[in-house]
Amino acid sequence: MKATARAHTNIALIKYWGKKNQNFILPYNSSLSMTLDAFYTDTTVEFNEAFTENQFFLNDNRVNNEMATRVFDHIKKITTLLNQPNLPHFKVWSTNHVPTAAGLASSSSGFAALTAATVKAMGLELSKSELSRLARLGSGSATRSLFGGFAMWSTGNDLTSVGSAIDEHPEMDLHLLAIETNNARKKIPSRSGMQNTVETSAYYDAWVEKAKNDLDLMTYAIKQNDFELLGKVAENNAMAMHATNLAAVPSFTYFEPDTLIAMQTVQELRDNGISCYYTLDAGPNLKILTQSKNIEAIKTYFNKKLPKASIIQATFGPGIQYLS
């Protein structure tokens, strides 16, 4: 009873920020993402009668903190929902090829891989849609990492709030440059920051309506293979999400000084005729959206502006993969 799965992380181009139901992880608005080839998580799950306790290892180190509890709780939810309550103890080995909790959506690949590996280790086969419903209970963004290319997570109820593919093999010339200026664990976890915003931000209702409109525009941009429209909508949507945080009580932000420098640098590049746009999730690291012809110029310019930053290049990645 052992299986290994690989899931790639995704970057939301239309953000999810806020739950209408905490127990079922149901979002106020649907979201849309790009699955990335450069960042992924490999997870092995084994159920074995010889094990005397549940254990979780992350990047070769045993974990006994809140993260381990979250992993154990997620597996318990899966086994309960799939009517497999009497399974033996298990061990989980996970390797993150993405900075953990630094705003690069490590939870999306982590819980997608964990869900897929757990279900396969149980000897069951489920569709990507069914897996995404289970993955949602661990991390909302994990619903989209079951799919490659462009994917969407729909709002709805427990049965209908699932991930789906928009285009798993896009023809669009779209690349992402992750500008990593800070790889430390973020001070405000996404879940607590999100809930504070939902409960206190004066801008939250307006955000939900804007996100719905942005989703329609983004879907149109993808169908029309329109990079410029995609970039403009993604950047504006990200800034609208972060504006809700600034209007929360207490006000907070994920921006660091280098985040602002990176934003300004993208604007300078555009002023110089180089087409690029930025987005960022709940963390300080900017992600730049551009086309292949602009990549080297952007790297050169950023190396001058932020010489200590790491720049990682990515493009479209695949959906869930089984390694064993």
Automatic annotation (TrEMBL):
Keyword Lyase: yes
Protein name stated in the entry: diphosphomevalonate decarboxylase
EC number: 4.1.1.33
Species name: Holzapfeliella saturejae
Family recorded in the similarity comment: Belongs to the diphosphomevalonate decarboxylase family.
Cited PANTHER family: DIPHOSPHOMEVALONATE DECARBOXYLASE
Keywords: ATP-binding, Lipid biosynthesis, Lipid metabolism, Lyase, Nucleotide-binding
Residue runs in coiled coils: none
